[in-house]
Design brief:
Layout: H1 2-30, H2 46-49, H3 66-73, H4 77-80, E1 100-106, E2 113-119, E3 125-139, E4 145-158, E5 161-173, E6 178-188
Antiparallel strand pairs: 1-2, 3-4, 4-5, 5-6
């Protein structure tokens, strides 16, 4: 009975891992190329793009000195050289696992631009694809060298808890060197 339960859990985890791998492969294949070290136009929110655009009269628009912003933030040439593009607001959005919606606003009375942002809460369940390889070297209490190499893959998120698997090889280098291998389920939160 106990063996059947463990086998069933392993099969369920393997099915979830396969679904996560396929999902990650598809997302990677279909997502737009975004070089993280360069400025690029970002994807707009599709539902918002469908909303009708309205012209609002503005007497003036207050901009930030473009040359200084280009210099400080190293904006690309296609922004720096375009005389029609002006900088009205800048912001830095902290890293987050989920999506962050960013909205540029302008005060029609003062002409000053601003940016507001909201982090969207994560769904209860999610297929993730976080992989790590690692190596560790240290000393044991018996003054032997301990070497560990391993890897882990987290493929399921439930709330803030991440579930996956790991595998490690470990050896104590000394008089009686032995190699150990271990693998199992990894749960982090």
């Amino acid at each position: 009975m106990k063996t059947k339960i463990i086998t069933g859990l392993i099969i369920v985890l393997l099915i979830i891992a396969l679904a996560s791998a396929l999902s990650a492969w598809y997302k990677e294949k279909t997502k737009p190329i975004l070089v993280k070290t360069e400025y690029v136009p970002v994807e707009k929110i599709k539902e918002i793009e469908k909303i009708k655009k309205i012209e609002v009269p503005v007497e003036k628009i207050v901009t930030i000195e473009k040359e200084k912003v280009v210099e400080k933030l190293k904006l690309p040439e296609w922004v720096a050289q375009d005389k029609d593009k002006q900088v009205i607001a800048v912001a830095s959005v902290p890293p987050y696992e989920g999506k962050t919606n960013v909205v540029a606003t302008i005060d029609t009375k003062t002409g000053v631009g601003d940016i507001i942002a909201k982090q969207e809460p994560l769904s209860l369940f999610g297929l993730i694809n976080e992989k790590k390889l690692y190596g560790k070297v240290g000393y044991t209490t018996e003054k032997n060298t301990n070497v560990v190499v391993g890897g882990q893959w987290q493929f399921l998120r439930v709330g803030k808890v991440k579930i996956g698997g790991y595998i490690e090889a470990q050896s104590h280098l000394g008089d009686d060197s032995k190699l150990y291998a271990v693998g199992g389920v990894l749960v982090t939160f």
